[in-house]
Write a structure and sequence with these properties.
five-stranded parallel β-sheet, single chain, two-stranded antiparallel ribbon, mainly alpha
């Protein structure tokens, strides 16, 4: 294993190389593990200046003059040394043949020491010019200390002295820095200190050790927190991660044995009281008062005070606040805790449980942890539930999910208690991004006997909501919610929540009138419940229903008041904010689909304003996906592919199907527009029906499926396969027609417009008429423009070119106002083709001019596929078109593409790469296709060497 580069030490390396010269004293200080020895190895003074290095061993009792003896053991002694150097025979027997004869014994021990010091000073002077490096002086034996005290005032001009040590471990009676005050006037002295590494330094280190794998900003932050920036800890952890299977757990990574034993060695050298106090801090593992630390360590206050002082001086504890202390790093706490014998660990956790229970405001989450660790199971469950209730009241849903999941792992949990906790977990998980475990748990609880009908209905409702939102299993969710509404007949408040969820149109074939009936029933049930919170939930879903069907009343609907900004909002205000954030997200989603992009911006800002990302990750991840969809629609495509892929690669989104579906559609649409048909096909395959022998995929919403179907229809039309284009949208057109929600038909228009080319113009006209009627009274610019475009296409097919051109002009105006520049350019191109079909003369000139304008618009936003099509059309009409700029094929891939291309070049299969990088095989397949396209290669066999990623 080759050593990693010396990162974050350029300044200190330059200072050391400049300062470490004959006639100079250099003090190099830093905490344990900061890399003092590694830096000394970088001295490289040249062949004319030998470096004599010795180390003070951590031994009790220490060897006399151990570092000096080690440094001189391999030195080449000069000839003609004075008789005084004969006194070195006992220290340097390996040099006996080069030393003068031993002198007579000294009369006193003091005289013997003085003679020895003089002899060593004379020998070091004779060896010059040279550098003497003595490391780890905090462990120096008394004889070495005395020698340095004697040597520094008499430092030979041909000798440079470099001393390294840990200031926190120096004995009080040996202030090394004071040696600099005793040097001769001609001697220069320098003091260098090594600080911890910064996150950016750790990034460079990780890039070297983990290549081709890269760490995210969050992972780098966790690594820095875990190691406190200590180079030794960071290097050993990163090397250990390269060999560890599975994902990179950088938030709390596995501890390599080398690092564990190094830390345990430091702890072993502590005195008994300090070691007990550090153990107590590791068990508490949270900023704690001195009183709590003393109680858990079972030390009297005077003894605890002394131990605290030592632990702080040694850098084993840190001051977390004026009144609290904590372990210096999470790594130290983990190693110390895990090394405790089983009985000792349980005893300390019992002590922590007792100490924290005396707090007037008990920290229930910490108490739950300590109760679990000392096997007090009932207390564990009680404290976990209390802590989850507090977290939910404060809007900390993610914290509540973690606590409740942990509590539900108790094997002997009574059935009634299990049901209560599962119900709370289902509620808390609705704003999270990983619900698979919760869904499985709720199903297990539902299958158990002993529940009343209302209890079963409440659990089923929470299950249905998770299936509907996080798991994208709309059909299954609908069945659970219908059953829940019936089971909750005697609980109108809860029944209203199930009913209003059924009111939101998703992927089921229910007609829009059915959704309206559900919301009317929900409103009535909410009134009967007289529960304000239920009324808010119903109001949000009513607004969502209206927005999804394009009813302009949605934008005037009464929503829960989030209240004024306040650092400590009440639980009631937090509940309103949660509902307001949900309403804002739902309205933003509908606004993107309808083409109200300014409204979408407004509601997205409101979504993320009132609820923190850490506690409602589902809201924030969904909002980010919608922002990327807005960028696609508005033609803001710079870096859109990389940003979308970055989110698609995020492991925490792997099971959040509703979000990853939207991200996948953006990436597929962009790939198609940029001429990467293979990449587009790979992404769109996610939305095609699975074979009967495979488990069914997620039930994506109709607008999501329609977006995918429209892209597939465009691909079919590019192959001049109108029948295939229609087949891609046929099922969805029928679903939209049966539901009566024609604002969802926007992206299906390319397939419907292909019908006349298959001889089914009457069907196309009938659908156009039904769409026009279905859009009456709605506010949906995207659907309005799509309808105009369809009407123009049908008019063109009938030969009514004037009507077609007027309709194309109207559609283009709507697209530009939204704005949707890509669609506006497509409409301009379609209008140009209509003009060209009218013959030569003025029509040809206007058609060519329109094509050139469309080409310019395509080129401006980066739609290479469409630009190439326009160039072909211009050439077909005898008009020269400027060639497209050659695609860059210099191997500048995105970081992820470069990483995967390098592994593919080594012969790894997609499945192997997926396992190595913790991605899905389909994602790997997409990246390989992207890399081949960018590199101009036809097969993965053409990949040879790692490729340079694009700068980020």
């Amino acid at each position: 294993m080759c050593p990693p580069p010396l990162v974050g030490r350029d300044k200190q390396r330059h200072q050391l190389r400049t300062a470490a010269r004959p006639g100079a004293l250099v003090l190099l200080t830093g905490a344990a593990g900061t890399g003092k020895t590694r830096l000394v190895h970088e001295l490289d003074p040249g062949p004319d200046l030998p470096v004599l290095t010795g180390h003070c061993p951590p031994r009790t009792p220490p060897f006399p003059l151990a570092p000096v003896v080690e440094a001189l053991r391999t030195a080449t002694l000069p000839e003609h040394l004075t008789p005084l150097c004969g006194a070195l025979h006992p220290l340097l027997p390996e040099h006996a043949s080069h030393l003068p004869p031993p002198p007579p014994p000294a009369t006193t021990p003091a005289a013997q020491d003085h003679r020895l010091h003089r002899a060593l000073a004379e020998l070091l002077d004779a060896l010059g010019p040279a550098l003497l490096v003595l490391e780890d002086l905090h462990w120096a034996d008394p004889h070495t200390r005395d020698l340095l005290t004697y040597l520094t005032p008499r430092l030979p001009p041909h000798l440079g002295l470099v001393l390294t040590y840990r200031p926190e471990e120096l004995p009080a009676d040996f202030p090394v820095a004071a040696l600099a005050t005793r040097t001769p006037p001609t001697t220069s002295h320098h003091h260098l200190t090594l600080p911890p590494l910064t996150p950016e330094h750790l990034r460079a280190l990780a890039h070297h050790i983990l290549a081709p794998t890269t760490l995210t900003d969050t992972q780098i932050h966790h690594l820095h927190t875990w190691t406190a920036g200590l180079p030794l800890a960071a290097v050993e952890t990163l090397h250990h991660l390269t060999a560890a299977p599975g994902p990179l757990p950088t938030e709390e990574p596995p501890v390599p044995p080398t690092l564990r034993d190094w830390l345990l060695e430091r702890l072993h050298r502590l005195d008994r009281d300090t070691r007990r106090l550090v153990r107590a801090a590791a068990v508490l593992n949270h900023p704690s008062t001195e009183t709590d630390l003393a109680r858990v360590a079972d030390l009297t206050i005077p003894r605890a005070d002394k131990a605290l002082s030592r632990a702080l001086r040694l850098g084993l504890l840190r001051t977390a606040s004026p009144a609290a202390l904590a372990p210096a790093t999470p790594l130290l706490a983990r190693v110390c805790h895990d090394a405790l014998p089983h009985g000792t660990r349980r005893r300390l956790h019992r002590a922590a449980l007792a100490a924290l229970a005396q707090d007037p405001d008990p920290p229930h989450a910490r108490l739950a942890h300590h109760a679990r660790e000392c096997a007090r199971l009932r207390e564990w469950t009680d404290h976990a539930e209390h802590a989850a209730d507090q977290a939910l009241a404060q809007g900390e849903d993610t914290t509540a999910v973690t606590l409740l999941r942990d509590a539900l792992t108790r094997p002997d949990l009574p059935a009634r208690r299990r049901a209560d906790l599962a119900l709370k977990l289902g509620r808390a998980a609705l704003t999270g991004i990983s619900a698979e475990h919760t869904i499985t748990l709720l199903r297990d609880v539902l299958a158990a006997p002993g529940l009343t009908t209302p209890e079963r209905g409440q659990l089923r409702m929470e299950l249905g909501l998770l299936l509907l939102n996080q798991a994208a299993q709309g059909r299954t969710a609908r069945g659970e919610l219908v059953r829940a509404a019936a089971e909750l007949a005697t609980r109108p408040g809860l029944a209203a929540r199930a009913m209003c969820a059924l009111a939101v149109p998703r992927s089921t074939p229910d007609a829009v009138d059915t959704h309206r009936r559900w919301i009317d029933q929900a409103v009535a049930a909410a009134r009967r419940s007289q529960d304000e919170a239920v009324g808010h939930s119903v109001a949000v879903n009513r607004a969502t229903l209206l927005a999804q069907i394009g009813d302009p009343a949605a934008w005037e609907a009464d929503l829960p008041d989030p209240g004024a900004a306040h650092p400590h909002p009440t639980p009631r205000i937090l509940a309103r904010r949660r509902e307001f954030a949900r309403a804002s997200l739902n309205l933003a989603d509908a606004a993107v689909m309808l083409g109200h992009y300014d409204r979408a911006d407004h509601h997205l800002a409101q979504t993320t304003r009132w609820y923190p990302a850490a506690e409602a990750p589902y809201f924030h991840e969904s909002a980010q996906a919608l922002r990327l969809m807005l960028d696609w629609a508005r033609g803001h495509w710079a870096a859109l592919a990389q940003e979308t892929e970055r989110h698609l690669d995020a492991p925490h989104l792997a099971h959040l199907h509703s979000v990853t579906a939207e991200l996948t559609l953006v990436r597929a649409a962009l790939a198609l527009a940029q001429g990467e048909a293979a990449t587009a096909h790979t992404h769109l395959s996610r939305f095609t029906p699975r074979p009967p022998d495979q488990p069914p995929g997620p039930d994506y919403t109709v607008p999501v499926r329609a977006f995918a179907a429209g892209l597939l229809a465009r691909l079919a039309l590019a192959r001049d396969d109108a029948d295939q284009a229609w087949s891609h949208v046929e099922e969805l057109v029928s679903l939209v027609a049966s539901k009566g929600i024609w604002v969802w038909a926007t992206d299906l228009v390319p397939g419907v417009g292909a019908l006349p080319r298959t001889g089914r113009g009457d069907l196309a006209q009938d659908l156009c008429t039904r769409m026009r009627a279905g859009l009456r009274g709605t506010s949906a610019p995207a659907a309005d423009a799509a309808l105009l475009r369809l009407e123009a296409t049908l008019a063109h097919h009938r030969g009514d070119h004037t009507r077609a051109l007027d309709l194309y002009t109207d559609a283009r105006d709507v697209y530009q106002a939204m704005p949707r520049p890509y669609d506006a350019a497509q409409v301009r191109e379609e209008a140009a083709r209509t003009r060209l079909s009218q013959g030569g003369g003025r029509h040809r000139e206007q058609g060519v001019a329109a094509l050139r304008a469309a080409l310019e618009e395509y080129t401006l936003i980066g739609a290479a596929w469409d630009a190439a099509r326009v160039r072909r059309t211009l050439r077909a009409h005898g008009v020269p078109a400027a060639p497209a700029a050659p695609a860059r094929r210099d191997g500048r891939l995105s970081p992820r593409e470069g990483e995967i291309a390098a592994l593919a070049a080594q012969g790894h299969t997609n499945r192997q790469i997926a396992d190595l990088l913790h991605l899905s095989p389909r994602t790997v397949e997409t990246h390989v296709a992207n890399a081949l396209a960018k590199l101009g290669l036809h097969s993965r066999r053409d990949l040879s060497a790692p490729h340079t990623p694009a700068p980020t």
